[in-house]
Write a structure and sequence with these properties.
single chain, mainly alpha, calcium ion binding, EF-hand-dom_pair, EF_Hand_1_Ca_BS, signal, EF_hand_dom
Length: 156
Amino acid sequence: MLKYLAGVASALLLVAAGVFLFRSSATAEAPALVPRATAPQAGTPSEPLADEPLPEAAALTREQRRFNRYDKDRDAAIAREEYLQSRRKAYAKLDANGDGRLSFDEWAAKTVAKFTTADRDRSGSLTAAEFATTAVKRSPARARRCPPQQAPNEAD
């Protein structure tokens, strides 16, 4: 009984530590925006300020990022071997016995494991509640990019 109480106490301490760490990192200050200087400061020479735009990182399109994932040697061209490399890795993972041939059982191993895990009562068929556990877990929607902040009107 003492072992169970010690286990529960340690689990509660771990959860409390996790909450404490999560809250401390979530309250980190956001970087302050650098204000643009519109007029020379007192005591400085009155030279016109260069209103240079800040450099921005080039935004790659989804297709450009996909192309870059395949182009391993970065020669701006995807060779046949580069294109097939990801498929070879996926095939090797499925070929459990390493004989270079996929049997139906090797190909369907993930699906069979998913079915076996969902079939809690080991009846060989899934009830509606058991089947609901096989649904694909979707990731939350990505955060939307905000439009760029407009500079304040210098006439004001």
